[in-house]
Design a protein that fits this description.
heterodimer, A: 126 residues, mainly alpha, Helix Hairpins, two-stranded antiparallel sheet, B: 155 residues, alpha+beta, two-stranded antiparallel ribbon, rod-shaped, disordered N terminus
Chain lengths: 126, 155
């Protein structure tokens, strides 16, 4: 099918496929960051429930290294802040890729005279 | 839904079949995730059961791998290291550790519920696409029959 397309359209189609892959990568990164954020928030909530003189441990590889409550709380708060920023930045990136995808899809459809059957769905589509 | 010529119909069917396959793969991944979350919940249950069973001074056999165990004595049941997530663990009393594990189970239940909702959405989308594929197939067959009839009439 792709072999029958004019070279310019084929180029656009390849760009579209690249964007689709990029969208999937960004979506996966966002999901991973959201999971880490939710885990850090849960740990911070748990920390609120326990005494401040509790002995804490931080996992380093297979080891549990002793640390203190304040250090753990500070580190987790920083982790939450950083992950919130990362999720926001990935959301923006996701929107940007979606916009680029739609723009390119429209260009390609116009180029092919509205025969857009082969390009169903958005960039993040399954 | 307009299919255009027979070639367009075949192409649409192929696209639908690819989309359905992608959704099936996504559903399988989500089902694996539910299974792994349930496994984590079972482990939390086992830990709660163990904490409720052993006492300070209890003799236990600690697994060292390969089906081998070494005998140990619990020094203090109120010194339990429990994972809080995000690479942190806390030393808690038996009650505190059980509380943490119960909270973990609740979080896991919520996550399982979310993933099950995602599975239901994927199933619904998949069912819609299958319906579209059936319609497209029927339409294509009708067109082929009409073409065959037209050729027969010409002869």
């Amino acid at each position: 099918m792709q072999g029958n397309l004019p070279p310019e359209a084929q180029e656009k189609l390849e760009e579209l496929q690249d964007l689709q892959e990029k969208a999937q990568t960004v979506a996966a990164q966002k999901q991973q960051a959201e999971t880490q954020l939710s885990e850090a928030e849960t740990a911070l909530d748990e920390l609120d429930e326990i005494d401040e003189d509790t002995v804490m441990y931080r996992e380093v590889g297979e080891l549990l290294v002793q640390t203190d409550y304040d250090e753990a709380a500070e580190d987790l708060e920083e982790k939450v802040d950083n992950l919130e920023i990362r999720v926001q930045s990935l959301e923006k990136q996701e929107t940007r890729v979606e916009d680029q995808f739609e723009e390119l899809q429209e260009e390609l459809q116009n180029m092919l005279g509205g025969a857009g059957g082969m390009m169903g769905g958005g960039p993040g589509g399954a | 839904m307009s299919l255009g010529g027979g070639g367009g119909g075949r192409q649409q069917l192929q696209e639908l079949s690819q989309q359905i396959q992608a959704l099936e793969e996504e559903q399988a991944e989500l089902e694996d995730e539910v299974e792994s979350l349930q496994e984590e919940k079972r482990e939390a249950d086992e830990a709660i059961e163990a904490l409720n069973t052993i006492e300070t001074g209890s003799t236990v056999q600690v697994p060292v791998g390969g089906g081998a165990y070494v005998r140990a004595e619990v020094e203090d049941i109120d010194e339990v290291i429990v994972d809080l997530g995000a690479d942190y663990s806390a030393e808690r009393t038996r009650e505190g550790a059980i509380e943490s594990l119960e909270t973990k189970k609740e979080t896991l239940d919520e996550r399982i519920e979310d993933v099950r909702e995602e599975i239901a959405e994927v199933e619904e989308e998949s069912a819609q696409l299958e319906q579209q594929a059936q319609q497209a197939q029927q339409q294509m067959m009708q067109q082929q029959m009409q073409q065959a009839q037209g050729q027969g009439d010409d002869e």
